[in-house]
Amino acid sequence: MRFLPRFFRRSEIEDEMEAELRSHIQYRADDLERSGLSRAEAERHARIEFGGRERYREECRESFAGNFIEILMQDVRFSLRVLSKSPGFAAAAIVTLALAIGANAVVFGLLDGLILRPLNVPRTESLYAIGNPNNTLGQSYPDYLDLRDRNRSFDGLAGFKFGQAGLDTGDNPLPSWLFEVTGNYFDVLGVKPYLGRFFHSADEHGPNSAPYVVLSWAYWHSRFADDRAIIGRVVRLNKHPFTVLGVAPPSFHGTILFVFPDFYVPIVNAQQVDGTEAFNDRQSRWLFMVVGHLKPGVALPQAVADLNSIGSWLAKTYPKEHGPTRYTLARPGLYGDFFRGPIEAFLTGLMLLAGLILLAACANLGSLFAARAADRSREIAVRLALGSARSRILRQLLTEGMLISLAGGAAGLWLSSTLLSQLSVWQPMPRTPIQVPVSPDASIYGIALVLALVSGFLFSMAPVRQVLRVDPYQIVKAGASGGAGRITLRDVLLVAQIAICAVLVTSSMVAVRGLIHSLHSNFGFEPRDATLVETDLGYGGYRGEAVPPMQKRLIDSVEKMPGVTSVALLDWLPLQGGFARGSLVFREDATDLRRSSAAAEPGIFSVSPGYFHTAETTLLEGRDFNWHDDATSPRVAVVNRTFARKVFGSAAGVVGRHYRMADGTRVQVAGVVEDGKYAFLTEDPQEVMFFPLLQSPSAGTNLVVRSSRDPGQLAAALRNTVRDLDSGLPVLIEPWTEALDIALFPSRVATVALGILALMGAMLSVTGIFGMAAYSVSRRLKELGIRMALGAQSTEVLRAALGRAVRLLVLGSAAGLLLGVLATRVLAHLVYQANPRDPLVLAGAVVALTLIGLVATWIPAQRALSLDPLTLLREE
Amino acid sequence: MSNQAQILPGTLDLLILKAVSLGPLHGYGVLLRIGQISEQALLIEQGALYPALFRLVHQGLLKADWGVSENNRRAKFYELTAAGRKRLREETDGWNRLATAIASALAAQPEEV
């Protein structure tokens, strides 16, 4: 750090140098005076004899080590001055880089959070999950016990599964997500409590023997407001008393990277949480994952061999339940290779795309820089003629580029860390504990800095050849000139960029149109002006026989509320990404009840009487259910048109006919309703059957309420009504339209992603065209001046100056639009009703591209038009 | 001017070290001294002297101090350091070897080959 003190003493050194040179001239003048000159004359002579004082001072400075910083500061000051003279250029360059670097940093952040960073547990490198050969990791509980007790390779094995339950802390019970974990879970992982204590294997004494809760730090923070007194308190989980033992550390959120459970309970209490009772069933692999640390010194093949020997023992001992059993080891964080594969592929694609965007940005900025260097060829020539070294000029250009790239990098970093912190708290699917485990940290800052420096170097080196070739005498004498070029790589690149931009613009418009369409399409029910009361009676501890009477009570009480015009219940909301239940159905005369002879495999909804009226689903034929369709009366169903067509061959005249379920039960069709959307918005027509609630009971309880009252008031009143019936039952009250968010999720993500990409594409095209147009104008200034002097019209001048840029633009746009129309066919899988041949979309894309072209060529065109041939010809 | 020789690149440092070794000097004094000891045969550009002086100071071969000269002008005086003295000896030897070698090469006669 020797240059630092020097650097700070800079002005002191300068002063000293100045004093010394002055004293030299004084001495020389003394001598000259003695030879007979007057003092003034002598001093003048002395100064002349001394020669270029600045140059020597410069050389003096260079003989210091601290000189690097000084020259740098000089260059920085000079560059800032130059850049402030063309703020448009600087801003365009900085924004382009910010977007490109930001995109890369975000993708890297995702990569870092999802792939590079392992689970946040001690000794994570030795943590493995036990996998089955078919890429799943689920195990049955008895198998887990055998694996845990018989293996010699692990320091311990723990298992867990997901669960949902209602948590009542005294007021406002809420549905929540939890992990049901084996008693040794925290001990096996090696996680230490943040507060209180964890439960251990010693706490497990058979079913429902360990009513303990360990909160996740985030849940403790948000639901309990960091209340330390929570430890030891008794809360109600599905109405069962559980004691809060402790809080897990903030960095720990279970053993799946993107799942963030609210709390952990011992798995021996699974029956109370979600009714799981299969503790002795070897065929039900309901443990989601079994994980453990390998013992130090145990190699993977050794551990697999050990597990497989347990596998053969299991196969021998339980031949009925077990076929030949082989095990693998997998990384737990992304559920082995099950999620890693797709996520890696997706992120690699993104990384490639982001890299290309950055590269294209560099290429464009490079041509912009080349254009500027061409503009400044006179300045550069003068500097060369005055004795400046070429390396010095290049250095200054590089400084300019670096300043821009660092500013762009800083802006990009800001963008990306804002986006990443938004991402880290974002719940992509409402009501699921899934989050994106990213956090903007030092590695991302590092990446952004490196990218900024590298790209700054890349594009500021574009004009190097130009500068090295400059012949000061020729330029000062004759002015810069350039011939019309052939088709260069740069042209091809530009056309490709514009084409890609056009594809993205078209696709994002198609996506937006599709999204708007899908918000107003026919779902087979009317979500507008309906309020949902969502719960699961299991959260209130209701099981089996207790469920239907409670559901009837809920319906009756809500019906009696003032202002409620209709209410109905269904067990599973449509458009939540799948069916809760489905079943094979057979024609009435079928005798062979195997999959191969099934007529259809419809989804099942259990609904209360009046559902079709309340949901505004059109009943095409037959009747709605009534409360007499109960367990004692013959089985009936309401089916949709697709079901009728598939099972009975026609949609009309099927009321009163019968079909069979997989268990042979005969079901009579009571009515036919219109088709709707049930699992996904983009699905093909699905066959669906509705069963009366009392004939097909389900704890899933979603009330659809229509009312003349204000939604806010209604929600509060509904909450009170439910609380009066059961104060411990957690409910979620929201407009039905909001519950559809999950259905619109893929379209929204696609729209936003395409929008961002289209924005970047547009940005790149603008800088690309701008750079090319600016370059071609400044190279041909002289020619244009002569043309104008000879009387060329402004249109002719423009054609000469920008013809090439515009031709490339048109070529690229046409190719892009064509490709875009083709590409959006693919989009139709993601976005409901994405129609590429929508005239509005095509017109919109053309307008957008024209705008891009206008914006990009505006400044060069202005410049070409405002040429003053006189000045130009005189100067050049 | 014809009796003045352009100094060879790299020899300026040696000349400065030699001049200063004869007694502390300020910058202008170095010029005069070189003129004097080379009997006005070596011409040094006035400005070129200072970068060389700075370089030598930076390399630790010279040390500089402000002082007052005989005619009461403030000036920066240069003095040889120990390292400078050592360097002067080495460079003088080197130069002598080179000069002898070149002289004998140039004096070679056809019959000696």
Brief summary of the model shown:
The complex is a heterodimer of chains A (876) and B (113). Chain A contains 28 helices and 22 strands. Chain A has 876 residues and is α+β, with helices and mostly antiparallel strands.
Head-to-tail CA distance between termini of chain B: 37 Å
Low-pLDDT stretches of chain A are 1-8
Secondary-structure-based class of chain A equals alpha+beta
Question: What's the alpha carbon Rg of chain A, rounded to whole Å?
Answer: 37 Å
Low-confidence stretches of chain B: none
Indicate the overall shape of chain A. elongated
Counting structural domains of chain A, the number is: 5
Q: Radius of gyration of chain B from the CA trace?
A: 16 Å
Mean pLDDT of chain A: 84
Q: Between the first and last Cα atoms of chain A, what is the distance in angstroms?
A: 48 Å
Report the major sheet of chain B: 3 strands, antiparallel
Average predicted confidence as pLDDT of chain B: 83
**CATH topology group of chain B:** Arc Repressor Mutant, subunit A
Helix proportion of chain A: 40-55%
Give me the secondary-structure category of chain B.
Answer: alpha+beta
Compressed to H and E, one letter per element, the order of chain B equals EHEHEHEEH
- By oligomeric state, this entry counts as heterodimer
Please provide a written account of the structure:
The complex is a heterodimer of chains A (876) and B (113). Chain A is α+β, with helices and mostly antiparallel strands and 876 residues long. Chain A has five domains: 3-65, no CATH class; 86-118 and 337-480, no CATH class; 124-332, no CATH class; 488-523 and 744-876, no CATH class; 531-743, no CATH class. Chain A is 52% helix and 13% strand. Chain A has 28 helices and 22 strands. In chain A, the strands form three sheets. In chain A, strands 13, 14, 15, 16, 17, 18, 19 and 20 form an eight-stranded mixed sheet that branches. Chain A has a six-stranded mixed barrel with strand order 2-3-8-5-7-6. In chain A, strands 12-21-11-22 form a four-stranded antiparallel sheet. The radius of gyration of chain A is 37 Å and the shape is elongated. Chain A starts with a helix and ends with a helix. Chain B has 113 residues and is an alpha+beta fold. Chain B has one domain (5-112): Arc Repressor Mutant, subunit A (Orthogonal Bundle). In chain B, 53% of the residues lie in helices and 18% in strands. Chain B has helices at 11-21, 27-37, 46-58, 82-106; strands at residues 5-6, 25-26, 42-43, 62-68, 74-80. In chain B, the strands form two sheets. A three-stranded antiparallel sheet of chain B has the order 2-5-4. In chain B, strand 4 and strand 5 form a beta hairpin. In chain B, helix 1 packs across helix 4 (82-106). Chain B starts with a strand and ends in a 7-residue tail after the last helix. At the A-B interface, helix 2 and helix 4 of A face helix 2, helix 3 and strand 5 of B.
